[in-house]
Amino acid sequence: MQAAVTAVHHVLLSHGLAMPRLRANTRPAAQLGIAIDLYPVEAADDRPETLQAVAYADAFRNRWMLDPIFRARYPEGFFAASKVSPPAMEDDDLAIIATPIDFLGLNYYSRWVVRATRSPGDYLPPGRIPQPWRLEKQMAPLHPFTSR
């Protein structure tokens, strides 16, 4: 996970660094932005542990990318909750990442409905981030066609 934190930071930083160069080399009316795959995250129930899992899933899947771009900061408590260190940064990295864009492109593939499970072996252990395609299994989502 630590390597992913560094990689994502550099992807976001490279995007911020590219924006002024793109603006300098495109026609003035060109619209420049970024496309990110985002997932609405919904709670399957209202238990406190589920709401905590939903908040973390949203930070992991959505806000980890959005907050630096639009708020010039990473989600509060995200790195501690993930049991990793924040990425090494220069003083102006977050300002560069937050370079204004004209649009946000959304790649919307599905939603996540998450719940904290009741048996200790069925939930995501604190600080362990699975591969994204395994996160659904680890966080025990409901199938979109399953009634709550």
Description:
The chain is α/β, with parallel strands linked by helices and 148 residues long. It has one domain (2-138). Helices cover 43% and strands 11% of the residues. The chain has five helices and four strands. A two-stranded parallel ribbon has the order 1-3. It is globular, with a radius of gyration of 17 Å. Residues 121-148 have low confidence and may be disordered.
What tags apply to this protein structure?
about 150 residues; alpha/beta; globular; disordered C terminus; 4 strands; two-stranded parallel ribbon; 5 helices; two-stranded parallel sheet
Q: Helicity, in percent?
A: 40-55%
Largest sheet: 2 strands, parallel
What is the overall shape? globular
- The fraction of residues in strands falls at 5-15%
Total domain modules: 1
Give the C-alpha Rg: 17 Å
SSE sequence, one letter per element: HEEHHHEEH
User: Distance between termini?
Assistant: 32 Å
Number of strands: 4
> Structural class, from secondary structure content?
alpha/beta
| Average pLDDT taken over every residue | 83
- Side by side, the strands of the main sheet go 1-3
Please tally the helical runs, counting DSSP H or I stretches of 4 or more residues: 5
> What low-confidence regions span 5 or more consecutive residues with pLDDT below 50?
121-148
Q: What's a concise summary of this model?
A:
This protein has 148 residues and is an alpha/beta fold.
Architecture blueprint of SSEs:
Blueprint: H1 2-24, E1 33-37, E2 41-43, H2 48-71, H3 78-81, H4 93-97, E3 103-107, E4 112-114, H5 132-138
Parallel strand pairs: 1-3, 2-4
